[in-house]
Amino acid sequence: MLLLVATAICKLCLAQEVSFVPPVFNYTTHNYRAGNQNWAVAQGRDRVIYVGNEHGLLSFDGVNWQLNPLPNHLSVKSLFIDHTSPEERIYVGSFEEFGYFQKNGKNELCYHSLKPLIREFTLYNDEVWTIHKLGSKLFFQTFSSYFVYDESDNTLKTEKPFPAPLYFFKAGEELYAQFIDDHFYRYDGKQFQLLLTRERLNNDHVVSVLLFNNILLLTTERSGIFSLDPATGELIRLATEVDRELQSETVNRVTRLSDSVMVIGTLKHGLYALRTDGTLLWQLNRNNGLYNNTILGLFTDDDSNLWAALDNGISHIRTHSPLSFFEPKNIHIGMVEDILIRQEELYLATNQGIYTYDNQRQGMSQLPDFNIQSWFIREFDNQIITGNNSGTAFVVNNRKKELPETGTGGTDIRAMRVHNREILLESTYTSLQVYLRNSSGQWSYSHKVEDFFDLINQVELDHAGNIWAGHMYKGVYRLRLDEALRKVVQQEFFTRLDSTAEATRPIRTMKLMGRMVFTDGAAFYTYDDIAQQIVPFGILNRELPQLTDTRSIVSINDTAFWFLRPEEYTLVKFSGGEYRIADRIPFAILNNPPNAGRGNIFVKEHRLSYFCLNGGIGRYDHSYRPRSNPPRLELYRIESYNRNSDTIRLLPVNGRNVIGFSENNLAFTFRYPDFSYKRFTVECFLESYDNRWRTTSTDLTITYPNLPANTYQLHARVLNDMGEVLSTLNVDFEIRNPWYKSTFALLVYFVMVGLLIAFLIREYIRMVIRRKNKLFAQQEKERLAQLDRQEKLIAEMKSEKLRNELIYKSKELASATLMVINHQELLNQLKKEILEHVRSGKFSRAGGISLIKMIDSNLPDEDEWAIFQENFDLIHESFFRKLTERYPELTPGDLRLCALLRLNYTSKEIAKMLNLTLRGVEAARYRLRKKLNLEEEENLVSFMINFT
Q1: Which residues 6+ apart lie within 8 Å of 210 measured at CB?
Q2: pLDDT digits 0-9 by tens, 13-43
Q3: Which of 286, 459, 499, 887 has its CA 20 to 30 Å from the CA of residue 915?
Q4: In this structure, are residues 54 and 37 in contact, taking their beta carbons and an 8 Å threshold?
Q5: What is the 3-class SS of 360-401, one letter each residue?
């Protein structure tokens, strides 16, 4: 838990010496995730703080804690950082173990043990309690021996003196030692020589040796502080304001804070800060902010701030800071609403009454009769006046002087000059009240302003004589009083500052460099007395747009101002015609901040400002100047995630990294070792990737997943809360192309593409050739087919011609044959007729025989019908043979009819050729159909033509 309690090491300007203490940031195991006990603190060249913890070595950069364990996993009891070596070494001492940590190229702390260098000696229950360097030699001291390590030749020498050493001390260029229950010694380069006997130190042990202006201050466990002049050997006991406390406590650690300040750490009562003259600056313990009263280690860092290693936790005391705080422990004073510091008196107006600091009791006490909510306490011409819930009263000799005629609830009061008359104008819950000087020159209540009643909490007077009265919740009045200061002669009420603003927003009324300033939380406005209207305040809106929620402005001087905001005190300075934010005090960093919107400030002599807190007050020293060695932004760690192996690898932080594509998920962690209360942010911009600056996470880490292959430059910068760049850093790295995009792969791709193109060209040529061949073959095939068709057509035509010729010849043959047959039958018939006539005697026998011989000589020897059948079968593929085989009952007459039908003769032609009547032909056809078993619908001619 972060605890901020208070600051300032200079003496308070008040004579009563109100004890302001520096702010303390406490870190517990919840913060650093290690053991409770812490033994030593040191700081590296990079400003990182290292702490010896019971679990190992802690490192802290102001944001991140990291634990680096030892091989034995035990505590680090002593710590020394050697800044002189080229590679910084962090020497540590532990139980039966000592060595050093050193960073590698990845910023990892790697441990190197020196224990193996020990010869002829065995560590037994020994712990290394102090480490010091003298020249090139490191001294590691235990309670039984000490070891001298020479960096130049990496050798270790063991010494076992008697009595045994208790503590070693380094002061200037000298090494001193306190031996157990023995005297005080100085190292002469070879051995320890007696410097002071134990009796001269009140038989006590020296626990600290500090060098101030060539004088050694020796602090003992219980006998206080001694001053030793090394040149003369003169030893003087130094009287301090805390001698009684030092004698009753056990001093454990002491450190030098500045040229004239030392801090003493005890085992039971925390810290004491003393000047070298013995005066007490402050005391810190559990009552006023220290987390634990047992101090095991002290260290002053490069900023002159103090670190305390505690028995439970770690405390960072901001001794070099403009802030300081006071919180009384003897009484709870409540929420402080207003502060008044006059001469040697301190007054606080709180929600529980009026308190003042009691010099004798060294604490706050409540004024009698002032145990009520009080809103302000002011001084005018040595008169103190306070406003509270019941009204207004004067404080006279720390007693209450009632003003019964005043109204209830005094909220604000201002000194003004109206109509050339000096007045005090007070706002209350109900009215405005006027105070005037009486005959003795004292301020006294005069009257209420007539005919004006409202809830006013702020009043101001502008240069034109207008009184501005701000309503507690809404709007603002512009008022003008009459000459008698009793009546309002002009009144204008502004419910909003412009037409777009919400009428219910509170309007805050304040004054800046003589000009009226108004704000509604969205913008600043001022009053234009020429145009007699409220207009935007251009310069403030342009230069301080983030401060438009300001409630009030308190002037420090002509060029410095506090802007009181709901949750922050903001310091603004005016220079060169411009306003700029000089500092911020957020309520969040305060241990007991005021409630939101309840902050108030009192300025003393333009040098000190006092803040109202809850239960105390804070102080801001304007003479504070920050140290000139600000921290630098550093790259602390680069992590790459390999998605193939699911592992995280650390990369070197120095130089240019070339990273494989499989590890293109990167995380960059930065360090900016700033331990002050000021806020800062770290932003990054990755060239060729980002289009805007990106803010890191709270642990100052930024991640870039799945980066494309490219050469990159990461820009990083630190911004304070005013937007100013404090430090910058550039990181160069490269993401390699994946293997399939490498030069070799591209060459392979080129060759493969070339081969593929060649293959495709060859295949294309082959395809074109095949296509042309196929086309040629097709064309040849079509040509041949065409020829074949033509030949077939010719053949068919020839065949058809032959067929027609055959049919024609067949018809002629049939006709001729039939004619021959008919002629033969006619001759046979004629021969028969002649024979009949010869027998009947009609013809003579000789004449008949002569005719018969003539007829026989004209009859053929062969059967004409058989010849016809044979020839017809040859022409018509065995027509008669097949027909007789299939239909054996056919007669020669039927066959002749079939032949004539196949030759497609008509019935009329058949009748003529067969010497039959047409009716006889039809009868023959009918008989033939019956023998052929033809259906009625079947055509007889078609059957004969198609018969095969």
Answers
A1: 171, 216, 217, 219, 254, 255, 256, 262
A2: 443 467 889 999 999 999 999 999 999 999 9
A3: 887
A4: yes
A5: CCCEEEECCCCCCCEEEEEEECCEEEEEECCEEEEEECCEEE
